[in-house]
Specification:
By secondary structure, this protein is an all-alpha fold. Helix content is 39%, strand content 0%. α2 crosses α3.
Length: 131
């Protein structure tokens, strides 16, 4: 027997306090300065801190938290997930997996933006990204 009724997704409540101290480090600051328009920087960094802070900190030995972040068309999703990726690096997450787009065109666009905005291919970087 299957239930064909609607599935209702409720937004996660924004907690007043951050569950763990998310660090906005050099990777995030460089990304914000080079790729985010100045008027949007505070909003982008606050949203990214809220998103990554809902997960389990990388220093915790065990734990699991699953979440899904979605956004409207042309709503700044790419910039948002780039900020989350930069924060993940600043906070010691050993791996980041980005799943984006439903076509090769969107995959190519997102990959290009990530490579450019996070300077993934820059050989002068002290801390290189691994593909």
């Amino acid at each position: 027997m299957t239930d064909n009724g609607p599935i209702i997704v409720e937004p996660a409540a924004d907690d007043a306090e951050q569950p763990w101290p998310v660090v906005i480090g050099q990777e995030t600051l460089d990304f914000l300065r080079s790729s985010v328009p100045e008027p949007a920087r505070d909003n982008i960094s606050e949203a990214a801190v809220s998103i990554i802070g809902k997960g389990v900190p990388p220093t915790q030995e065990v734990g699991q938290e699953t979440g899904l972040v979605v956004g409207y068309v042309q709503s700044g999703k790419t910039m948002s997930f780039e900020a989350v990726v930069a924060l993940a690096r600043d906070n010691g997450f050993p791996i980041v997996i980005v799943v984006t787009g439903s076509s090769r065109l969107l995959l190519g666009q997102s990959t290009g933006r990530l490579r450019q905005d996070l300077r993934l291919d820059d050989p002068r970087r002290a801390r290189r990204w691994l593909p």
